[in-house]
Amino acid sequence: MKSYDIAVIPGDGIGTEVMPEALHVLERTAELCGFGLKFRTYDWSCETWLKTGKMMPDDGMSQLSQHDSILLGAVGFPSVPDHISLWGLLIPIRREFHQYVNLRPVRLLPGIPCPLANKKPGDIDFWIVRENCEGEYSQIGGVFGEGTPAEGAMQTAVFTRYGTDRILRYAFDYARKLGRPHVTSATKSNGLFHSMPYWDSRFADIGKDYPEVRTDQYHIDILAARFVMSPERFDVVVGSNLFGDILSDLGPGVTGTIAVAPSANINPERKYPSMFEPVHGSAPDIAGQFIANPIGQIWAASMMMDHLGEPEAANLIMKAIETVLDRPDAPRTPDIGGTAGTKELGAAIKAQI
Amino acid sequence: MKSYDIAVIPGDGIGTEVMPEALHVLERTAELCGFGLKFRTYDWSCETWLKTGKMMPDDGMSQLSQHDSILLGAVGFPSVPDHISLWGLLIPIRREFHQYVNLRPVRLLPGIPCPLANKKPGDIDFWIVRENCEGEYSQIGGVFGEGTPAEGAMQTAVFTRYGTDRILRYAFDYARKLGRPHVTSATKSNGLFHSMPYWDSRFADIGKDYPEVRTDQYHIDILAARFVMSPERFDVVVGSNLFGDILSDLGPGVTGTIAVAPSANINPERKYPSMFEPVHGSAPDIAGQFIANPIGQIWAASMMMDHLGEPEAANLIMKAIETVLDRPDAPRTPDIGGTAGTKELGAAIKAQI
Ligand SMILES: CC(C)[C@H](C(=O)O)[C@@H](O)C(=O)O
Ligand SMILES: CC(C)[C@H](C(=O)O)[C@@H](O)C(=O)O
């Protein structure tokens, strides 16, 4: 029997509340599909940092590298500055494991209240391919003239050809694989004088290798507006680290799935484990109440199984989510208009499988 | 009689089509309110660039500096790279005239189809205060290793204390002036390691001088999603050059007013002329058909009159726009669901005044 060895990092806040639901669903799916699953839980989190001064142990990355895959909850604590907590865990994992693809679905699901008028499930259904290792997210820069009137901060974005080309190729390949030969690029070459014209030129160049794939590009400002005005138009949208980040929260915002959408951090070469997480954060405002929606975490688990080569298991989970959401009597957490708790919704999905 | 001397730059594409409507409306308003207006038109545009290699003459800025104010249409031509056309006209004007505030309303108007469900005029009504002179829009950087596998591009954002503090203060002052003491800051301190933590620290510091103003801050990704999910919540939103740019297209996207919204580039000290323009671009796809919506340009003219110290004139224009839009028989351009042309809608607004 095939078996998969998963590193589980519940993290902080609601991360620790939604994770068990995903694990239960995974276990049930494994039984049905006939594969094994081994979970090893790591308590790396802001809580750990407050105790030890480290988000993960010194050999954390090498521990993780033993696993087939990583399932992450959410990391973040109000008392720990984001740029410490994230650059001590999430971002090093993405970078050192060369998870240079951040793949996120934007999909209108049944039974989820959509903020847009006159849309029904199926109307909105596309993918965001985000560069995940370089670009605007950078440690290059700093504060100068501190404490003087000439004070300021600099921040340098770096777009390597290596990093740019590989994400663009992934986007084109993905559009091909989906059978939806259309890639939209997010740019801002009219304002970001160096980086974005470079991005555009690479997009044009790589596109030549995919003559059957239709391409278009929009400046990020108008593209964001188009996500609201005409979200039906998109198939695969590719963006830099920052633009992809913005678009992949905005997309779920538009489809009402901000608490529901997953995020796959993928190393396509499979040299390193990939990491799967919900789009939502640790949500300190509702943590401890067990009312968080577990679907983001469960959908992330579905994407993980797909990546691990178990598409049947992935579909089973996804179908269960959609079937439960579509049921009028389904338990619904407050974010999707109900009063049910995390466990109830999780249990309903598990039972559906 | 008071008189104002306005530099008029229609620019390219639909810019040249919507501008006359704004001028007619302004003339009518001046008659009624009893002030004079002198227009001087400059043909600076991509068309000029194709002929002369310059977007404006060498002494362009000094010509403009003679005027009380600048009314701009839109600049951009498919055959002229954006980073040439804009860095040759729009961006130098913003910077050399220290128009460090870009002020943009996000407002649900009557009679404009709104992409969001269950919203009515009045529900969404807030202001975006965007930094307009520095930040991510920078010429610092370039391409390295060109033509080699180690090729790439770098782009450096610069946030000076001088530039950051003045825009933050403007936002707080503006919230005070509106009587809506609530300022929301756009950040991304969890990804942009240097610039955004600096921005946040200045926001916290300046906020201390406005103890009665409530503050909050969101990362740009979730803030974009909130523009869709809960746009009622905002009063004044302050953002860097790039974040403000994105939010101030997204906001009008959410309210259906992308072809209608204005943009004021303000030098608050009034040492230099300020510049008023519609949010929309030159729209080469519909240029020449005279079907562009002139309201963005007319609303920009209203903001101009307000800035010039004629609030009565500004209100008169704004009221006329709203009254016409609210009329079931009003001429409507295609973008707002009708078949009327630019001139008809413009004439209706002028007649309403
Ligand atoms: C044309 C472009 C440079 C400009 C900007 O990004 O500032 C435009 O999008 C705007 O918002 O006025
Ligand atoms: C937490 C933060 C650093 C992260 C990001 O911006 O990448 C998050 O927003 C995400 O999209 O996964």
Nutshell version of this structure?
The structure is a homodimer of 353-residue chains. Chain A has 353 residues and is α/β, with parallel strands linked by helices. Chain A has helices at 15-33, 46-52, 60-65, 82-85, 90-96, 161-178, 195-207, 220-229, 241-254, 295-307, 311-326, 342-352, and strands spanning 3-11, 36-41, 69-74, 101-107, 125-131, 141-144, 152-160, 182-187, 214-219, 236-239, 262-266, 274-278.
CATH class of the largest domain in chain A: Alpha Beta
Strand order of the largest sheet of chain A: 2-1-3-12-11-4-5-10-8-9
Small ligands present: 3-isopropylmalic acid
In CATH, the topology of the largest domain in chain A is named Isopropylmalate Dehydrogenase
General shape of chain A: globular
CATH superfamily of the largest domain in chain A: Isopropylmalate Dehydrogenase
Outline the structure in words:
Chains A, B: Its cofactor is Mn(2+); K(+); Mg(2+). Chains A, B: InterPro entries: ICDH/IPMDH, IsoCit/isopropylmalate_DH_CS, IsoPropMal-DH-like_dom, TTC_DH. Chains A, B: GO terms for molecular function: tartrate dehydrogenase activity. Chains A, B: Its EC number is 1.1.1.83, 1.1.1.93, 4.1.1.73. Two copies of one chain form a homodimer. In chain A, a hairpin with a 7-residue loop joins strand 11 (262-266) and strand 12. With 353 residues, chain A is of the alpha/beta class. Chain A folds into two domains: 1-99 and 267-353, Isopropylmalate Dehydrogenase, CATH 3.40.718; 101-141 and 154-265, Isopropylmalate Dehydrogenase, CATH 3.40.718.10. Helices cover 39% and strands 21% of the residues of chain A. In chain A, the strands form two sheets. Chain A has a ten-stranded mixed beta sheet with strand order 2-1-3-12-11-4-5-10-8-9, sandwiched between helices. Strand 7 of chain A pairs antiparallel with strand 7 of chain B, so a sheet runs across the interface. One 3-isopropylmalic acid sits between chains A (190-191, 221) and B (86, 245, 263).
